[in-house]
Structures are given as structure tokens and as C-alpha cells.
Design goal:
alpha+beta; 31% helix; 12 helices; 13-stranded antiparallel sheet; rSAM_sf; seven-stranded parallel sheet; 432 residues
Amino acid sequence: MHLVYADGQGNVYDHPELHGLARSGDMIVELLEEELIPLPEGATLSLLPNTRAVGMNPSTGEMLPLPEGSHAVGALLPQGFTRLCVPGYIKTDKSYKLPLFGYSAVVWKDGGFYVAADRTDDPYKWNPLNCDRDAVRSGVESLTGKYPENRLYGHLSHCALGYECLTSSNTFLSRWEGGVPVSYSCNAGCFGCISEQPDDSGFVSPQTRMNFRPRVDEIVEVMLEHLKTPESIISFGQGCEGEPSTQAKLIIEAIREVRSVTDMGYININTNAGLSDHIRGIVDAGLDLMRVSTISALDDHYNAYYKPRGYTLANVEKSLKYAASQGVYASINYLVFPGVTDREEEVEAMVEFVRRTGLKLIQMRNLNIDPESYLELIPPARGEILGMKTMLEIFREELPEVVIGSYTHVPPTGEARAKKAVARTLPQSRYI
């Protein structure tokens, strides 16, 4: 398990003597053989700026930082893989904040790169190598040409071509899960927001947030173009927008219009679910799937990261319970971080939260954050740190009916069709 490091030009090397180390929370730890898998297809290696790689002398157990200029290296994993450890490093500039990515520990072993990760889903649909960029460009030309006045397609074309966002790319490929952003505002101030950061945060947002309020007809056009197969998913709530439920009136009108035309595919919302009344209206309009972003089932940790405005974790739980009661296939987008998510108190709280809310799916998502900044923000550990692999084993044992995955799934066919049949008989929500 040889240490992997990079020089200032980004050239990557394996150290001939030192073993690679990792971090769990604020501790530098040894990597275990059972934590390592070959570097997955679609993963990329990333230099960690302003860091020094740290390795271990296997004979003495001594931890040794490499000379300045020898940077730590991390792997950025595709969806479907949950990281178990962060790379081992020390910062050369304590004030510097790493770019907002989910760095995973990587080593050189048996003639190849290995990473500390667990496969938690089938990575095929979200492997960047399975997204034909020429086909995306063709799709952009086709749909922006067909709908020249639709500002959403103009916005999404930048996401697909500039950021190579896979969800917006799917919108132009008319496959799998496609996105339809609707909101430029948010009712939370997430510490690691990827689309909007305060000027004094020290972070650089890797994406630009949408800056307009779309019309219902623009939303409907995108939805109807995408919902053409039984397995297609169209999703409100993308990385390039704020909280979609702040535009509940638009969403409700769009869902009603679309469902008056077709019952094909699935309508999903990615949301913080804090606006319980808004979520109720969206559910009643005909929502099929809901993915709720969370980082913890403990109030102090949740509040520290999300900085919710006008809602609490109790509102989130209320929204999830209502959605589940109405047959919505509900999941959480669980932002996980080694040494934090696997704390004893966090695991216990999440197991109980899932049981109370009737969730069907936990989507494991590697938190994109600067580790030091995050650890300074949240409450200290109150119990034992179990390890990410142990945490996953506990979830699978304690929640046998809950799917452990990494992205949005559709419910079993019979269950989904029955839900839609019932929804058509319900009175329209009086939310609007």
C-alpha cells in the first residue's frame, strides 16, 4: 500500500518505501486491506493544493511528511462508490481551504491504484465515461433549436457543456434522470453550497446558480420532452439552483399540466424539505419520488451545516412522513464524511430517523468539503468512531427493508403503478 503523491506540476508518483495513510475525522490512520478496492472506472486523481503528503515507515510505524512541494493526492469517485477515508495530509497553509470536492484516500498496490471505498450502487448510469459528449452537444443543438425561447434549455446547456453535469446532460440525451431547475433562492445557508457562497466564506463555488424564475410553460416543455419512457425521471432541485420548494406554485402547476397529458415516467424533487406545507402541496399535485438532503439526524450538527432559515429538522421529518404516507418513494441524500457520519451517536440517530419516517432508500453521497473547516464547524464526537465500513454494515443489518444506494431509484413497478392510480382519484391540493 505505497504512498501516492504529486509534484507541483501534477505528476503523480508512488513512493518506493513509505506506505500510504489516511484521515478519519481529524485523525491520521492506517489503511486496512479490507477497505481498499481498485480505483473505479470514471474516478479521477486530484492534487490537494497547499498540502504535504504523509506516509508511514512500515518498519517503525513512524509517520513521515514528504518534503514541501510533494502534494497529497486524492481520488474523486463517481456516484456508486462511498469513500471510507480521506487522504492523509498536512496543510502547508493553515488558512487555505481546499476546493469543494470529496477527496478519497488512494494508494499504489499490486501494480495499480487502489482507493478506500465501498461500492454502494451500480455505477454505470453515473460513470462519466458512459456519457457521450458528442451526443450531448447534438442534443443541446436539437432542443435549444426546437425551443429557442425556453430559457431553461439555455441554462441547462451551460451546465451540460460547461460543467459536464451528468443530470443536465441526461436532459439533452432524453435518458435516465434529467434535471429541471426552478429556483434562484434558498431557505438554507449550507456551509458547503456548490452554487452560492458568501464573499467571506473562503470557498469558491464550482457552479453558478440560475438567476431567473422560469415560466410554467418552460418547465412543462422540459418535463414533457424527458418523460417519454417508463423509467425516465425528471427532477426538480439541481446543484445549479436554490431550494426548489420555494417555487412550489410553479412546480404544482407544472406537475398538474404534465400529468394531464401523460403518466409516463417519474417526477422527483431533490429538496431540503423544510417547507412542510409547500412539500405537501407538491406531493398532492402528483409527485412520485422525493430525495431529501441531510447531513445528520442530530439537530446541532444539522443546524451547523445547513443554517436553516425558518424551519427545523422536525419540519424535514414531517415532510418525509407525509410524502411516505401518500405513496411517494422517499429517500435521503445523505452527505457522508469519514470520522463524522460513522460516529456512534450519528449512526444511532440516523437508524431511528429512518425508522420513524418510512424511508425506502438511503443515497450515500460523499460530502464535498474542506475537512478542517467542516470539523471546526460541527459538534465534537460524543461516542466511538465506528468506521465507515462498519456504519454501512449496521445500516444493512438494522434497516433490512431500506435500500442502500448512491442515486435516485424508481420503486418496484407494481407499487409505482398502484400509487399513480390512487393519486388520480385524490382531490387536487388546495395549496394554490
